[in-house]
Recover the amino acids of this structure.
């Protein structure tokens, strides 16, 4: 049984173009204060030799204050029912369930509800790559340090048995003629070259030619760790919207996304990068729109057991809004520091400065900016 808990305090301010200061697109009046605490509950169950089940739950989060099941899966590393054949034990792994899809490496480092202990920073990427879908993934480990994965999911955040070709309707979601599975591919090389040096390089592909609603970039059911930033006066504390400070290119019905993640750790210094290109469109669009994202972070860990760290991250996004012919940009710079009093306790703080560029004059994010400090106390076990 495992748990994850996060309590945050923020002192953030935001602004947009002067033309919105007295208009209906005036920003929410931000003040300093404590954010809603988040909590996760996990069950990791050994069902048999080499067979385990993992169930993840959100006990409280910004998006869902009530208890909410994130998902669960069975992981098979051995086949005891068939006498544990050596080839499977040595080279193969299978995951089946309603689970977090293994697209990119950032989802291993992101904050997820109360589980923020793996993230040196307060928030995730501006375009947050995260989705839970129903399906399976097959892993092959053909040689030391090499991992190959192929997966297939239903391409949706939830179950769906509707026949989309049998019931014409004006509902945009139901105008999709059929729903296709999503295809996942991933390859990684991970090497511990010495006691001081580890390096890793991974590449991932996610593709779905037609789905009622792809949520690869809007599948988080917990919410951003920046509360209320760049939200309008209609924002009500503790309720929707819950993605403050993030940018989603859209809930596409057709999408192909590719991401590369390099990682190097030498002694206490680690560098993690992300370069991503996604092409997708909604049911109302005839041509796909392109979104690209670049993120680079450096973290230096020091003292006994690397219990203190300092970090810096730069993250930039270029994307095209639906219905427009020119691109917009969002960029973020963050500085972070943290201390692990024990391996299960973390106190971290972050200074962030985020800018919105080239947004249309009618968009409340035009000339948008938010900046300030967020501090979080974290428990994870």
């Amino acid at each position: 049984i495992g748990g994850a808990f996060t309590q945050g305090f923020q002192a953030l301010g935001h602004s947009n173009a002067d033309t919105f200061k007295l208009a209906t697109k005036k920003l929410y009046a931000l003040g300093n204060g404590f954010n809603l605490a988040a909590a996760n509950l996990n069950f990791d169950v050994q069902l048999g030799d080499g067979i385990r089940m993992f169930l993840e739950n959100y006990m409280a989060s910004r998006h869902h204050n009530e208890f909410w099941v994130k998902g669960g899966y069975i992981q098979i590393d051995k086949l005891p029912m068939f006498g544990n054949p050596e080839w499977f034990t040595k080279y193969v792994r299978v995951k089946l369930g309603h689970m977090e899809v293994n697209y990119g490496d950032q989802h291993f480092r992101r904050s997820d509800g109360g589980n923020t202990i793996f993230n040196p920073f307060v928030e995730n990427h501006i375009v947050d790559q995260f989705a839970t879908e129903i399906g399976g993934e097959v892993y092959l480990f053909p040689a030391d340090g090499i991992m190959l994965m192929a997966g297939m999911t239903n391409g949706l955040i939830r179950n769906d048995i509707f026949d989309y070709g049998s019931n014409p309707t004006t509902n945009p979601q139901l105008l999709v003629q059929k729903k296709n599975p999503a295809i996942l591919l991933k390859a990684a090389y991970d090497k511990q070259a010495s006691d001081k040096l580890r390096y890793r390089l991974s590449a991932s592909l996610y593709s779905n030619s037609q789905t009622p609603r792809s949520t690869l970039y809007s599948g988080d059911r917990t919410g951003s760790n920046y509360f209320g930033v760049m939200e309008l006066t209609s924002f009500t504390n503790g309720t929707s919207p819950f993605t403050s400070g993030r940018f989603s290119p859209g809930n596409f019905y057709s999408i192909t996304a590719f991401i590369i993640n390099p990682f190097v750790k030498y002694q206490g210094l680690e560098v993690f990068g992300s370069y991503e290109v996604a092409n997708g469109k909604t049911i109302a669009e005839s041509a796909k729109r392109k979104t690209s994202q670049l993120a680079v972070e450096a973290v230096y860990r020091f003292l006994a057991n690397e219990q203190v760290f300092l970090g810096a991250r730069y993250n930039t996004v270029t994307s095209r809004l639906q219905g427009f012919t020119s691109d917009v940009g969002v960029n973020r710079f963050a500085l972070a520091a943290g201390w692990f009093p024990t391996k299960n306790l973390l106190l971290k703080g972050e200074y962030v400065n985020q800018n919105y560029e080239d947004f249309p004059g009618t968009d409340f994010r035009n000339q948008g900016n938010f900046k300030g400090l967020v501090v979080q106390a974290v428990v994870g076990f």
Q: What stands out?
A: The helical segments are 86-91. Residues 275 and 294 are 5 Å apart (CA to CA). Residues 86-91 form the longest helix (6 residues).
